[in-house]
From TrEMBL, chain A:
<protein>
    <submittedName>
        <fullName>Phosphate ABC transporter ATP-binding protein</fullName>
    </submittedName>
</protein>
<dbReference type="GO" id="GO:0016887">
    <property type="term" value="F:ATP hydrolysis activity"/>
</dbReference>
<dbReference type="GO" id="GO:0005524">
    <property type="term" value="F:ATP binding"/>
</dbReference>
<keyword id="KW-0472">Membrane</keyword>
<keyword id="KW-0592">Phosphate transport</keyword>
<dbReference type="InterPro" id="IPR017871">
    <property type="entry name" value="ABC_transporter-like_CS"/>
</dbReference>
<dbReference type="InterPro" id="IPR005670">
    <property type="entry name" value="PstB-like"/>
</dbReference>
<keyword id="KW-0067">ATP-binding</keyword>
<dbReference type="GO" id="GO:0035435">
    <property type="term" value="P:phosphate ion transmembrane transport"/>
</dbReference>
Automatic annotation (TrEMBL), chain B:
<feature type="transmembrane region" description="Helical">
    <location>
        <begin position="120"/>
        <end position="140"/>
    </location>
</feature>
<feature type="transmembrane region" description="Helical">
    <location>
        <begin position="146"/>
        <end position="169"/>
    </location>
</feature>
<dbReference type="GO" id="GO:0005886">
    <property type="term" value="C:plasma membrane"/>
</dbReference>
<feature type="transmembrane region" description="Helical">
    <location>
        <begin position="21"/>
        <end position="46"/>
    </location>
</feature>
<keyword id="KW-1003">Cell membrane</keyword>
<feature type="transmembrane region" description="Helical">
    <location>
        <begin position="190"/>
        <end position="211"/>
    </location>
</feature>
<dbReference type="GO" id="GO:0035435">
    <property type="term" value="P:phosphate ion transmembrane transport"/>
</dbReference>
<keyword id="KW-0813">Transport</keyword>
<feature type="transmembrane region" description="Helical">
    <location>
        <begin position="261"/>
        <end position="286"/>
    </location>
</feature>
Length: 275, 294
């Protein structure tokens, strides 16, 4: 990716940051012995991962390593696949989301998701952002107006669309559509935002905008981002998990992963020897 | 040695080109045949019927006197029939399609049901007429009224609506559903707010095509027992009625007795064709206008 090359050296960028005070941070997602099968295929193997709040956690790895499956398990979106089987525990704020009594609707109201390909509804920009609040029962036009403006500002797209809120979202460019999807996600006021390769369909400038946005959003939200792009993980994340063949090979501070990885396979991957 | 002998190729070239042209001619003739028949048919109908169409013909009640006979009763009957068929097929057809596509677990049972719905579309319409006669007209004791005819017709065209709606629902991209689920929407909220609006043009097209099939069907209603000569105009769904194709049928049958009945039948066919043409145009218009791009 040709995005802002001077930033691609992670050591330079991260130096200014104090070594993480992660010990004091609360854990938002705690995954324990997670296994997942698609039919006979064992897609996730004994995943153990503790994700802190108000951090950006990047998940990297080659295609088919299970990173997308993992992030979709965090909001149980993976259950849309008919033949899926899951064992283990995922504690979200100390409650097991894989428990049958846990309502997915409840979970997904707290955990928003931004998808790989921008997927706005074929409705107006306003209706796209108001969709979440509306399905959760907000009918008051004034409140909806405020939510829409706040969310669009939050996703750094307000100035671009404020004069055409009633136009169809399909008139926006790909990058704008993705930021609209982020706004739509902010409108349900989530606690965690899951991002599944949110920039893989975007051009470099749109990618940069989304990356800057992620940096701002982490003040308020916990962000888990799957990315194909190692430079992106290095630029924007605090922690990085490296997945390979359904296993976590290494999980550590991003600085460490990209400077002194402890596993040979991590090193091979980040130096571009495979993947 | 070369495998392709140019001398041989040259010798056979003539017959190959001949076969080529023959094939083209054959397919053209096939197309032409249908076209010519259609043109002759329309020409004859227009020649026989056009002179008989005027306001009186449209607005008069039925009569044995060809000079005074009109099709107002059949037009009203057709409208009443559609008022029964449209909502019943919409609710049952779209409901079935939603269930099969969105709720039913994909498996043997659901694919068995789907296959049978497609088979149902091929059942002769007379069979539906017998069903309507047995169940609606006799068992439920409705008699040969609009409601009985409408329910029979609704069952007849139901498979068309189910299949068209299923296809429309299936064509809604999965990523739109994911976006909705991802915000904590329930399945029903997702269907109501995302899937149905996106599938609506396809569903409406299917419904209109189904209705235009129902408008042209004769056999099931003849079986139910529509009177050959019905002078009163129906006022509601519990009245006896007749419809355009049935009127055409009886006039054609009776044209052996009164020659002018053939002209009345032709005039009615023209009206029916106009109605069908209008409905199909609306279906195409809806399909083109609301075609979604994702």
């Amino acid at each position: 990716m040709p995005v802002v090359t001077e930033k691609t050296n992670p050591n330079v960028k991260k130096e200014s940051k104090a070594p993480n005070s992660a010990e004091n941070k609360k854990v938002v997602y705690n995954t324990k012995d997670l296994n997942l099968w698609y039919g006979e295929g064992h897609a996730l193997k004994n995943i153990n991962l503790a994700i802190n709040e108000n951090e950006v956690t990047a998940i990297i790895g080659p295609s088919g390593c299970g990173k997308s499956t993992y992030i979709k398990t965090l909001n149980r979106m993976v259950e849309l696949v008919p033949s899926v089987k899951i064992s283990g525990e995922i504690l979200y704020r100390e409650r097991n989301i894989l428990d049958k009594s846990f309502k997915v609707e409840d979970l997904r109201t707290n955990v928003g998701m931004v998808f790989q390909k921008p997927n706005p509804f074929p409705k107006s920009i306003y209706e796209n952002v108001a969709y979440g609040p509306k399905i959760h029962g907000i009918r008051d036009k004034k409140i909806l107006d405020e939510i829409v403006e706040k969310s669009l500002r939050g996703a750094a797209i307000w100035d671009e669309v404020k004069d055409r809120l009633n136009q169809n979202a399909y008139g926006l460019s790909g990058g704008q559509q993705q930021r609209l999807c982020i706004a739509r996600c902010l409108a349900i006021e989530p606690d965690v935002i899951l991002m599944d390769e949110p920039t893989s369909a975007l051009d470099p400038i749109s990618t940069l905008k989304v990356e800057e946005l992620v940096q701002e959003l982490k003040e308020e939200f916990s962000i888990i981002i799957v990315t194909h792009n190692m430079q992106q993980a290095a630029r924007i994340s605090d922690k990085t998990a490296f997945f390979l063949n359904g296993e976590i090979i290494e999980f550590a501070d991003t600085d460490k992963i990209f400077s002194t990885p402890s596993d040979k396979r991590t090193e091979d991957y980040i130096t571009g020897r495979f993947g | 040695m070369k495998y392709v002998d140019s001398e041989q190729v040259h010798k056979k070239m003539g017959s190959r080109l001949l076969a080529n042209n023959l094939a083209k001619t054959l397919f053209f003739m096939a197309t032409l045949f249908g076209l010519v028949v259609l043109i002759v048919l329309i020409y004859r109908v227009l020649a026989d019927g056009l002179g008989w169409i005027n306001l009186d013909f449209l607005m008069n009640r039925l009569s044995t006197d060809p000079e005074r006979a009109g099709i107002w009763g059949a037009i009203t009957g057709t409208l009443w029939l559609m008022l029964v068929v449209a909502p019943v097929t919409m609710i049952l057809g779209v409901g079935t399609a939603i269930y099969l596509e969105e709720y039913a677990a994909k498996g043997r049972i659901s694919s068995f049901i789907k296959t049978n719905i497609s088979n149902l579309a091929g059942v002769p319409s007379v069979v539906f007429g017998i069903l309507g006669l047995t169940v609606f007209a006799r068992a439920l004791d409705l008699g040969s009224v609009v409601l009985a005819g409408g329910l029979t017709m609704a069952l007849l065209v139901l498979p068309v609506v189910v299949v068209a709606s299923q296809e429309a629902i299936r064509a809604v991209p999965q990523f739109l559903r994911e976006a909705s689920y991802g915000m904590g929407a329930t399945k029903w909220q997702t269907i109501k707010n995302v899937v149905l609006p996106a599938a609506l043009p396809g569903i409406l097209t299917g419904v209109i095509l189904a209705l235009s099939r129902a408008i042209g069907e004769t056999a099931p209603l003849v079986v139910i027992g529509i009177p050959a000569l019905l002078i009163p105009v129906p006022d509601g769904i519990f009245d006896k009625f007749t419809i355009l194709p049935v009127q055409i049928y009886y006039w054609t049958v009776d044209s052996a007795l009164v020659a002018e009945y053939a002209n009345l039948a032709a005039a009615t066919i023209v009206i029916l064709l106009i109605v069908l043409f209008a409905m199909n145009s609306i279906a195409i218009l809806i399909r083109n206008k609301f075609q979604k791009r994702y």
